[in-house]
Write a structure and sequence with these properties.
8-stranded parallel β-barrel, alpha/beta, homodimer, TIM Barrel
Chain lengths: 308, 308
């Protein structure tokens, strides 16, 4: 059975919405711990304007400061050409471009329609290809609202597949299908994943779920049953959805790893190392995290018989 | 596609561990609201010693006070012969016996080994059958720790299936396989459900999950894929696990209904009515509940475009 590949996104998707600035050395310490745990990919930060996201203003310092390990790809979110240039200069392994599958979410979140995003991606790809070290950098694109848009509702599967195809034609090497606001359900996930794998064989698709409505692990299960082996996940379940106050964030890395390992599906990840890293998060961000296994312990936890 | 049958257990499994006594009239009001929502079965209370569980000391008043609706079975948990007599006197539709699949959990929780529980069930069944109105009462048995025991660990599937078979031979009409402390994973759930349905065709099996480690809905999905259509669930995700402090409780009724309805699997339940009832729970129990959809809204919730 193929081993899962988990892309840890807490340092980017998690920290970006925190009101507490996590000190740069703490970010580096966390990423180093994660990268020693067996995760294959870590989204370390975002090369975005510090005005837009002050929490990630230290992107360059973080990328320069972390340990690099063979087999652990360091990826960064990049919103535009300037961000891509900074990312290349920083020496990352992967650039993760982001666009929305829906017009209204694109305009709101990125100030660009999907068509405008695709045009911009063409420029970014040309720049990366012309860059001396660009040839070795993997280009991924994340398709937000692939399972629904909080403004316009349903996003047709045909539209998502069409955009994925156009991304691949542009030269993007991997596509992440994102359930940005936790609208996906397992039946929909199975349909889209099956169609994507059948339509673009060999393409590395990653699935990005939020646990907004409690379906995060059920959706991951459905994606895996459909043949997906790559998942974004966030330590402690950090992250969130600005349109669902009170809801939990990204699907939780250690809960995802725990489920699959319990099922006998190898992840290559040292779950105890993840749990130790997760246990430190409340101190870093100043609040409890939604992760469950860090509170309950693993399923093989044993209790002494109570004396009576 | 067969409609799901949801057994609401919050009034019993949820309230029994609350430190705040929910007033009897509030319990009745809640059960009446739930029974108007399309749920097919409600576990209204437990006829247990008031000393053992003071929170359910008003069991007889609750059963006497609730509205009875055609199509909504009122079931009660019964730990012993005396409880069964009280339940019959109260005029319930179903009695839910409980035993453990593991020796150590049985001794700790019920002061009985599985063998002793089976002997006791034989007496209870004989009493019920001899009772003038007993012939119309459905007898279910819940098998605790069917997916693992917090004291001894693995509970072999063959043992669970053997106990289910012996329950059915005794005259029990339905069996609930309980993941009492949230140890189950979807692969294990699929295996046990497939084996149970194949081994005892026609038997109404119910699955009872806790969300202790975040896998509640994933396990329900796996059970449904294996052919299970009956689930226990608790409004708001009330309930808990004494061996997993900080962990969430039973799988949440409205989150379960929401997932299946989003998948196009009919539940017959009015989700808005459930959500309205769930929104009142924090007032009744004095704390937030783990349910997610009541906080985030349904997946089809739409937001206005932010002005900028």
């Amino acid at each position: 059975m193929t081993q899962l590949q988990i892309n840890e996104v807490a340092p980017r998707d998690g920290f970006q919405i925190e009101t507490t600035f996590v000190p740069t050395d703490e970010k580096i310490r966390l990423i180093d711990a994660l990268s020693a745990s067996g995760l294959t990919r870590i989204e370390a930060t975002s090369f975005v304007s510090p005005k837009a996201i002050p929490a990630l203003a230290d992107a360059a310092e973080v990328v320069a400061g972390i340990q690099r390990r063979p087999g652990v790809g360091i990826t960064v979110l990049v919103p535009n050409l300037k961000g891509a240039e900074r990312a290349l200069a920083g020496g990352v392994d992967e650039i993760n471009l982001v666009m929305s599958a829906s017009d209204s979410h694109g305009r709101t979140n990125l100030r660009m329609t999907p068509e405008q995003s695709l045009e911009q991606f063409a420029e970014i790809l040309a720049m990366v290809r012309s860059h001396s070290r660009g040839s070795s950098v993997f280009i991924n694109a994340s398709l937000s609202t692939s399972f629904g848009c909080p403004f316009e509702g349903e996003v047709p599967q045909a539209r998502v597949l069409d955009l994925a195809g156009r991304l691949l034609e542009l030269g993007v090497q991997g596509v992440t299908l994102c359930d940005t606001t936790g609208m996906a359900n397992p039946a929909q996930v199975a349909r889209l994943c099956e169609a994507a794998l059948a339509g673009f064989p060999g393409t590395p698709f990653t699935l990005h779920f939020h646990n907004t409505r409690g379906m995060g692990l059920a959706n991951a299960l459905a994606a895996w049953q459909a043949g997906i082996i790559r998942f974004d996940a966030s330590l402690g379940g950090l992250g969130g959805c600005p349109y669902a106050p009170g809801a939990t964030g990204n699907v939780c890395t250690e809960d995802l790893v725990h489920m699959f390992e319990q099922m006998g599906v190898a992840t290559g990840v040292d779950l105890d190392a993840l749990l130790a890293a997760s246990a430190r998060l409340p101190t870093l961000v100043g609040h409890e995290t939604p992760g469950q296994v860090v509170k309950a312990g693993k399923a093989d936890r044993r209790y002494p018989m109570p004396s009576r």
